Amino acid sequence: MNLSLRHRLTIWYGAIVALTLLAFGVISYISVSSELRHNLDASLERVGYSLEDIIKTNQAQTKKPLRPAKTEQRVKQDQFSFLRENQKMNFYGPPRPIDSTAEKEQDMVWAAVYQHIIFNSKNFYIQVADTTNQIVFRSSNLTSINDSLPMISAPSYLAFEKAEGASHGFAPYVFKNQNLRLMLMQTKSAQISIGYPVDEIEATLGGLFGTLLVAYPFILIISLLGGHFLAKQSLQPIDDIARIAREITASNLSRRLPPTPVNDDEIARLTATLNQMIGRLEASFAQIRQFTADASHELRTPLAILMGELEIALRSRKTPDEYARVLNSSLEEVNRLSNVVSSLLELSKAESGQVQMQLEQVELSPLVMDICEDMEILAAEKNIELQCEIEPDVDIPGDEQRLHQVFLNVIENAVKYTLPGGSVYVKVFKNDTEAIVTVSDTGIGIPDEDLPYVFDRFYRVDKSRTSMNIPGNGLGLSIVKWIVEAHRGIITVESQYKKGSVFTMKFPLKTPENI
Ligand code: ADP
Predict the structure, then answer these.
(1) Helix (H) or strand (E) holding 497
(2) What is the pLDDT of residues 371-387, one digit of tens each?
(3) 285 CA distance to ligand 1 middle (Å)
(4) Which among 441, 446, 448, 467 is the best mutation to test ligand 1's pocket, defined by most ligand atoms within 8 Å of the CB?
(5) What's the rounded Cα separation, in Å, for the pair 169 and 200?
(6) Which pTM does this prediction carry?
(7) How do residues 268-325 score in pLDDT, each as one tens digit?
(8) Which residue among 62, 137, 316, 479 is least enclosed by CB atoms within 10 Å?
């Protein structure tokens, strides 16, 4: 399925929102449910402790010999008097005689405080039994004498949760088809059983579940629509860039993508990168155009000379000597043409990576010495002093034939661009990591403004050419630079116009990987 980035982003966004919502829903449900259950247990405990307090207080009151005439039997009977007093409707024990007005008043005050908590609750099921399992109190919702809750002395048939050493514990209990949360508590003199229907909790949780269920698809749809809108908004600039980029062709490479409203976001960076790329393409195209123009010019000149010579030769009958002169001159032009064409071919092969270097350990010292010896004849003809100072055992990994081409070209240039009476100095030496060859001359030098371009194809410093009419096609140093760099070396030039130039070539001594 080929979905657009916009749709994929929307789907991802929707999926993430859906999962987040689901996780949120589940976590909320679980935490609300556990909080409600915890609160219920806490309420049961609070009621239990209140009851315990009531009983304790009542015991204290009844144990105080208010009337010295009272017997022990009488005190014991009154332990749960407060409960009995307030139970009214549901007390099934023997009625307690009221002794005095003071006692009655006190009972009534306590009753007023706790009545609401214990006796008026419709939902709490409360039962108090004494230590002999005799039920002494039932809340109003335990209507019949047979309605009794389990006691802590016999909870064995319940799934009873009681912490080690605690006075009370909890258990689920079904009472008259109602699910209760039951707390069983043991006090000094009583067994308290308190139940509360869990239906309320379930109803609350059901309500929460329903709300989540309704809200879930609603929020999901809103977030999907939002996601789609956001994806559309964020990808719109990319669509615009693609549309404009499609309109840029080789004929209008000067055109650029318009700047984005935000200066430093991803789209701005993409626009800047694409603009830089178009800039590089424009420069490359310009270079190719320049190269084609230079190459045509370089080829057209010898061709025009050749054509002129041949036309003159054909115009009238010539002596054999005259024909020989024309042929010699034509051959010179053909040689020039052939040099340009083979240099161009070599450069284009080099650029397309078709040239294989024959790697071996090359001894630079004898190689440069041989070139020096050959060049001495040419130098002597021009009355130029050629000095070579060559350290022995300077070996580098490389292609001997190509390196020969490099040094010959640079030394030949030095002789070519030095006036008679000048001198050329060649030096070969090494340091710990590299072999260094320098070729210095006291020649015509290169003006500062031309210096950066001498390694460019077809670049010739005009002044040197016109004033001295030195032959050349401006390709030699381009090839030299390519060969040096293919050996992981570097070539640099320093020059002072009309004083001389120094070409320095440095090559690594160790075998570099993947030359
Ligand atoms: P060419 O065939 O013209 O010599 P190169 O690529 O070898 O082409 O050199 C490019 C240009 O650099 C030359 O035309 C010349 O102007 C300049 N040049 C090269 N070597 C020297 C030198 N030793 N002294 C002065 N100018 C030089």
Answers:
(1) none
(2) 999 999 999 999 999 99
(3) 25
(4) 446
(5) 21
(6) 0.56
(7) 899 999 999 999 999 999 888 888 888 888 888 889 989 998 898 888 888 999 899 9
(8) 316
